[in-house]
Every structure is written in structure tokens, then in C-alpha cells.
């Protein structure tokens, strides 16, 4: 696979659709004034009014614009690259499983807390669980490209030295350039910005509501990618058929479909491997 990644959403149709959907659902909810239908709490929505359909809607749109910006930037900056790793079809299946398992887990947790402990927790609307479910494979499969270390120990040692500690020739005093285990270090890497955005989104609805949704999502992601939850490696026939029909009918999906070759199985071969495989087949055909 080429070490140079393509910019933007080229060859990432599922990520493009997800990004547009996050923006469209949030804007539609704001314009149509229907955001209240996306809220979730066990009481009164489930226990009294039996509005079970809220379990299907609460992950579709963010409640305010700041959360929408954080979610879109986080997905665009970090998680869309997971589609390059898994392939578009597999990535779609992962998103659907995270959507389903988050709804089930949160419904069970809300029911247990309310029925046995009398605690009614409000869950903010938005794909918190899906985004933090993707955080686990992002940390697991994304390599560390670079890491920068800032060591503030020399500043602390310099402040403790007397004024006449430096020699006349301008050389550093003994011990100023040495390192100690007690020094204060800061590390920055290629994943630092993604972690910072995730932290802000984690506390965007206080210290209870959004952290619960995010922690449940991360737990679901960890269980799913460690094979404690089923269907990650299953092949859904309806999803395969729907995906390949969309690739043939939707223009920007069809261009990617033609570029990769219609015989490429994206669930098994990444983009670079598929190209090498196709070039080998062409050379064999010419030689024969």
C-alpha cells in the first residue's frame, strides 16, 4: 500500500455519507424544531409513554452546533481513515453494529438504574457511542507516525541555580542539560489532536450524561473488536447487495467501483493490495 494517503474523502464514500448525514440531521432537527424527539431518558419517555422509537433516533443528531462541529472534525480528522483500513463495506458493517449495540447497552443501563436504584439519567442526543466506539480501533490500528517530547526539567533546574552559576565563557552549568526521572515531560504525537477533541466532546454535556454515553460506546467498541460481541466478521447478504447496487448507481461510488475493479473484494483486500493484485493479473494475462 502506498505510504501517501489521499486527501479529503477520495475513495472514502461511506465516511463522506456519514459526515454529510451528521450535518444534515442536526440542521434538519434545528430548522424543523424537532430536536426534542431525539432526547432519551427512561422516565418519562420509556416507562410512562412507551416511546421505544427514541432508542432508534437518539444517536442520529447532535443537540447543539458546538457538539456537531466537534463530532464532524473528530470523525474527519481521525476516524475516516479507518475506512482505508477495513474497506468501505466492512466499515459500514462496523458502524451499524456500533449503532445497534450502543442502543441496546444504553437501554439496559437506563432500565437497571431507574428500576432498581431509582436513578433517571438523561442521555444527550448524538452519535457519542458510535464515535467513541471507533476510538478503540483508532487507537489500536493507527500507528504512531511521530512523537514530540517537551522536557521542562531544565527550566526548573535553571531557576534553582544561583545567579553566578554560569561561567564566563557562556557554557551551561553542570547538570543543566542532564535529564532526571523527576522532570516534567509532555508528549505530543499524531493522535494528540484527536484525543484532545475526544476529551472536549466527552465532557460536552457535563460530568454525567455525555461521559456515560461515551464510556458505553468505548466499552462496546472494545468488546466488539475483541470478539466478545457477535457479527463483526459475519457477512450480511442484504448489506452486501445494497452496497454493490449503490456502487453501480450512485455516481461518485461508481467511479470508485470502476477504479478499484468490479472483482475486488474490499472485505479482504485493501485498496493498495487490490491494485497490486490487479496488476499481477494483467501481467499474467499478457504473458499468456
UniProtKB/TrEMBL annotation:
Its main location: membrane. It is a multi-pass membrane protein. It is found in: Membrane. Keywords: Membrane, Transmembrane, Transmembrane helix. GO terms for cellular component: membrane. The chain crosses the membrane at residues 12-34, 66-82, 94-115, 121-138, 210-229. GO terms for molecular function: serine-type endopeptidase activity. PANTHER family: RHOMBOID-RELATED PROTEIN (PTHR43066), UBIQUITIN-ASSOCIATED DOMAIN-CONTAINING PROTEIN 2 (PTHR43066:SF21). This is DEBR0S3_03686g1_1. It comes from Dekkera bruxellensis. The lineage of its organism: Eukaryota, Fungi, Dikarya, Ascomycota, Saccharomycotina.
